[in-house]
Amino acid sequence: MRTPLVAGNWKLNKTVAEARQLVTDMLPGLRAVNGVEKLLCPPYTALTTVAGLLEGSDVALGAQNLYWETEGAFTGEISAPMLAEFCQYVIIGHSERRAYFGETDETVNRKVKVALAHGLTPIVCVGETLEENEAGRAAEVVSRQVRDGLVDCSVITGNDLVIAYEPVWAIGTGRAATAEGANLLIRNVIRPTLVGLFGDEVTQRVRVQYGGSVKPDNAAEFFRQPEIDGALVGGASLKADAFVGIVEAAAS
Predict the structure, then answer these.
(1) Pick the catalytic residue: 96, 128, 132, 166?
(2) Sign of the C-alpha dihedral, residues 44, 49, 50, 55?
(3) Would you list the DSSP string of 55-120?
(4) Which is the catalytic residue, given 94, 103, 132, 248?
(5) Residue range 39-86, pLDDT digits in tens
């Protein structure tokens, strides 16, 4: 059995003071839930503050991105060794990074390799656009993103990798994919592609989350699906009661 992972991606939100208040508000509810791994991914500026608040709890900390070099003249970038001081996870290849900042399967691959090399668990985001979905190309696109993003990566146990399937047309739109549709794509596309890369035994341990307009009132539909191992939550992770509600849904 794979332990569900519910991750809150705060994106470009929350000052340090606001982050402190949000974690203070949600931490008691998160601590009360068992059987689910919980993860918060605040902006870089709040990482150290949130790390201190989470110390001694069972809530993990993640970053929203990283650079593939470990040091050097790369103004504005953050390296894996810098993140590894505080974080256990890092989100890589989110659709917003792909759409707005030129992220490609090649850069995803380079980032995954450096994350793994420094003990960070990458959450690798894959998903098709609305145009690709309506053209019947979802399987083709997602398979390519998984394969090219993870080629030649040293995934040893399967516990050291998370995939987030996030159909781009469902992110921030309030329009979620159907739970059954997401489950089928994971079962028929993502897992077979992982098997081709890492073999069946490792693949069965890899957790695959769903991301895209996950809310307390629809989360249980997704978590009931056998191939969906949690959620990568955006907007709802910015409200303590909503995020705790999603985590509770994963536990039940």
Answers:
(1) 166
(2) positive
(3) TTSSEEEEES---SSSSSS-TT---HHHHHTT-SEEEES-HHHHHHH---HHHHHHHHHHHHHTT-
(4) 94
(5) 999 999 999 999 999 999 999 999 999 999 999 999 999 999 999 999
pLDDT in tens, 152-202: 999 999 999 999 999 987 776 676 679 999 999 999 999 999 999 999 999
Question: Active site includes 106?
Answer: no
Active site residue 55: no
92, two tokens: 């890589």
pTM of the shown model? 0.96
- Residue 178 has a CB neighbour count (10 Å cut-off) of 12
Domains by residue range for the chain, with CATH = 5-251 (3.20.20.70)
Sign of the Cα pseudo-torsion (180, 186, 189, 192, in order): negative
- On whether the CB atoms of residues 42 and 9 are closer than 8 A, the answer is no
Tokens (6 digits) for 154: 């040293």
Angle at 32 between CA 119 and CA 246, to 5 degrees: 75
